[in-house]
Design brief:
alpha+beta; five-stranded antiparallel β-sheet; five-stranded mixed β-sheet
């Protein structure tokens, strides 16, 4: 089992899904089937019990009619003195004396007189279920019988089994004058007529009637098992008015037996219902077959759908393995996003294309970089030749005792060397200030007496890092656009302010200034972070600072006409990058 799990389930998500879904489906369908079958059986059983109740109700009505007829007969007898005399003669004399009494009465009147047989024939003539009337003395000993249905009566007497289908109603016969009981009358009813009530109903089970003496007087079927009859008799001896026997075990192996007692007659009605009587086994089998077919169909459809997804995932896994091995030309070529797997496949294709593009781009860039480095190495000869030539010129100026020209040549050579050699992307503020001093010295020599500069930088921040050529282009703009050619009071100041994490370098001049409209235009361009790759002016510096340090850093400008301009350079405090100038 463990081996099968490892082989088919452990690392296969769709097999797990199929197993879980199949288990849930099978359990759910079987539970629903069990609930439906239970509901169906209970419903059929309740319908059958309702039919039994209806049949019992009709039988009780028939018994009530029989009781009423019996009461009518005994009332008719008790109100006729001659019949009372006849019964008294019958119960107190021998049968021969009774016959002599009857002949004497007939010979005196020579006419048909009202007697017991005539009364019974008259009152019971329309009752074909009355078999006979038996007269007993006050000690309930048999004296005589008046048969109303000879064939059935003698057939029943000759057939002991038929006794079960007879109901006997006994009533006392009283002397009207003394109100003493002079005898008893037994009226026998044929209960086979109850079969008509059963036949006219849809009764499927069996019905047993037990009288007050615990004798079975009626069964709706002769094929009942004796153990079921004994069970009804056993529970019929109890006082329960309405009791279920084996109710919970009905669907297993026992029949359901419902005992109901008639309070008026004392009879107990036993309803015996088996699963065979209801015919629920066939229906239950059909429901089970249908459930099995549904399970098979659902599992087949589920397997087909999940197999499609599984095959799609296997294809994706093979493609991912190829990409892992470096084959970035692998594509799934999914056109429509039908599901999440298609979306993943499309995104993998896009990722592969992006990777391939970036790899090619970086490779080409690296090749170009190598080529540029090679070209730079090859072109280093020319700068060295230029440095040596400038140094020769400077030495000639010194030999001619022209120190001003010599200093200018030295500054120019140093600036040229600063712009040519740099192995790092960042330089120290100290190096950048040195470069700016050389540039300002050259400009001061050119504009002799017209330009003065001041640098106020705390030595604590001279080792802070910033991009190369951040300050010099701004100084160049101040001189080219702000210098007043007719004034000898032009001043450029370089100052620094700081907080906990940032520094702000201020380059101030007292030149012409910038008009309000042009100043707004410059500020908008700086805010939009326009890229001008062909220039290293303000926009270029602003763009480089934002790319290097983030959007919160860059340039800011304040200016007033004829008052001067201030350019603010905001950068973070950095000190640890390796640099060479």
């Amino acid at each position: 089992m463990i081996e099968l799990y490892r082989k088919y389930i452990k690392n296969k998500i769709f097999n797990k899904m199929l197993l879980i879904y199949s288990s849930i489906t099978i359990i759910a369908i079987f539970l629903l089937t069990a609930v439906f079958i239970s509901y169906y059986v209970d419903n059929e059983l309740q319908n059958e019990l309702n039919i039994h109740s209806e049949v019992i109700f009709n039988i009780e009505k028939r018994f009530e009619e029989q009781d009423n007829i019996s009461n009518s007969v005994i009332n008719g007898i008790n109100t006729q003195p001659k019949i009372i005399d006849e019964i008294l003669k019958l119960t107190t004399s021998t049968y021969e004396e009774y016959l002599s009494y009857k002949l004497d009465n007939f010979s005196i009147t020579n006419t048909k007189q009202l007697d017991l047989k005539y009364l019974l024939d008259t009152m019971l003539s329309n009752r074909n279920d009355v078999l006979a009337v038996v007269i007993n003395d006050k000690n309930k000993e048999y004296k005589n019988e008046i048969v109303l249905n000879y064939d059935k009566w003698y057939d029943i007497k000759n057939d002991p089994e038929a006794v079960k289908y007879i109901r006997k109603i006994t009533r006392p016969i009283k002397n009207v004058d003394t109100m003493y009981t002079i005898g008893y009358i037994d009226i026998y009813f044929d209960l086979k007529h109850l079969n008509k009530i059963v036949d006219n109903s849809n009764l499927k089970g069996n019905l047993i009637i037990v009288d007050e003496n615990k004798h079975i007087i009626f069964t709706s079927s002769k094929e009942l098992a004796q153990k079921d009859i004994d069970k009804v008799k056993e529970y019929g001896m109890k006082n329960s008015r309405n009791e279920f026997v084996h109710r919970e075990e009905f669907k297993l192996k026992y029949p359901l037996i419902n005992i109901k007692e008639d309070a008026q007659t004392g009879f107990k009605y036993g309803s015996i219902i088996t699963e065979k009587d209801l015919g629920t086994s066939k229906m239950s089998s059909k429901i089970l077959y249908i459930s099995l077919i549904c399970i098979i169909l659902i599992l087949f459809v589920t397997y087909t759908v999940i197999s499609g997804y599984s095959n799609k995932l296997k294809k994706m896994m093979k493609g991912i393995e190829k990409i892992k091995d470096g084959d970035l030309d692998t594509r799934f070529n999914i056109e429509d996003e039908d599901d999440e797997l298609d979306m993943i496949a499309i995104r993998i294709d896009e990722m592969s294309e992006s990777l391939q593009y970036n790899i090619n781009k970086n490779y080409i860039a690296e090749v170009k970089q190598k080529q540029a480095e090679l070209n730079a190495l090859q072109s280093q000869i020319n700068p060295h030749f230029l440095y040596n030539t400038l140094e020769v010129i400077r030495m000639c100026a010194l030999a001619s005792k022209n120190r001003e020209v010599a200093q200018m040549i030295y500054n120019l050579a140093s600036m040229f060397r600063y712009s040519t050699y740099n192995n790092g992307s960042l330089v120290t503020l100290n190096d950048e200030i040195k470069h700016c001093k050389m540039y300002l010295d050259l400009c001061s020599t050119r504009y002799k007496g017209m330009l003065e500069y001041k640098i106020d930088i705390d030595n604590l921040y001279t080792q802070c890092l910033l991009p190369k050529f951040t300050l010099q282009p701004i100084l160049e703009n101040s001189i080219n656009h702000g210098l007043k050619k007719d004034s000898y009071e032009n001043v450029i100041k370089i100052e620094l302010t700081c907080n906990e994490s940032d520094i702000e370098i201020l380059i101030k001049d007292n030149g012409h200034g910038i008009s309000r409209d042009k100043l707004e235009y410059l500020r908008k361009d700086l805010e939009k972070n326009l890229q001008k790759t062909s220039s290293i002016g303000l926009m270029n510096i602003n763009n480089r600072l934002k790319l290097k340090f983030g959007e919160i850093y860059g340039l800011g400008i304040d200016s007033e006409i004829n008052e001067g301009t201030t350019v603010k350079i905001k950068i973070p405090i950095l000190r640890d990058e390796v640099k060479n100038v």
